[in-house]
Specification:
heterodimer; A: mainly beta; 4-stranded antiparallel sheet; globular; B: mainly beta; 6-stranded mixed sheet
């Protein structure tokens, strides 16, 4: 398997524009997580899905952020409108829940810069 | 709720020095514990794990022992190399809402000089 695939790897956009980040989890995994990484706050869980259903979005910072998972092989994280403080690295991760020792597999991340 | 606390970095060492990165956790259940490593420009990848008390996880010369009595999972390596320079994350995975949610510490940057 190719692992968790995220696109784009880098995104530079102007304040106010819509940004869409994409993630393809590992085939067969049934949990998907979106994280944001910044120097100030470390790695924050934004939202997670179980069997394509959003379970907990309490980490989403504002209504400007939204996430979807229309099927088992694809998820998006959208920011509309984007702001400079959204600049961060966004990671998608997936795992197969069913045992407490299941590790999370991470994509390479999308580095977002909002100018 | 669950949380992970790890020592702040950066940790700067000379090659072949001994490494310890401290990690303690708070959890309501009986979590599994992990160390992940992040190399520059990459995502996190699993380094080692332990699933129950007194288990020792090991990989690439790194070790960590699950200590339930002290709620700790300290990472150690006897002789670090320049190639070990990276950011290390301690994490736990505990069941919530039908999923096993990874909770991460803030990360500790390790810099190894030749």
């Amino acid at each position: 398997d190719a692992g968790v695939i995220q696109s784009p790897r880098h995104e530079v956009t102007e304040m106010g524009q819509e940004v869409t980040l994409r993630c393809k989890p590992i085939s067969g995994h049934n949990s998907l997580f979106w994280y944001r990484q910044t120097m100030m706050r470390g790695l924050e869980l934004l939202i997670y899905f179980n069997n394509n259903v959003p379970i907990d979005d309490s980490g989403m910072p504002e209504d400007r952020f939204s996430a979807k998972m229309p099927n088992a092989s694809f998820s998006t994280l959208k920011i509309q409108p984007s702001e400079p403080r959204d600049s961060a690295v966004y990671f998608c991760a997936s795992n197969l829940w069913g045992g407490g020792d299941t590790e999370a597999f991470f994509g390479q991340g999308t580095r977002l810069t909002v100018v | 709720g669950n949380s992970v606390t790890q020592m702040e970095g950066p940790v700067t060492l000379s090659e072949e020095a001994f490494l310890t990165i401290n990690c303690t956790y708070t959890a309501t259940g009986y979590p599994s514990l992990f160390w992940y490593v992040q190399y520059p420009g990459e995502g996190l990848q699993l380094l080692l794990k332990a699933t129950k008390a007194d288990d020792k996880g090991s990989n690439k010369g790194f070790e960590a022992t699950y200590r339930k009595e002290t709620t700790s999972f300290h990472l150690e390596k006897g002789s670090v190399q320049v190639s070990d320079s990276a950011v290390y994350f301690c994490a736990l995975s505990d069941r919530a809402g039908g999923s096993y949610i990874p909770t991460f510490g803030r990360g500790t940057s390790l810099i190894v000089h030749p």
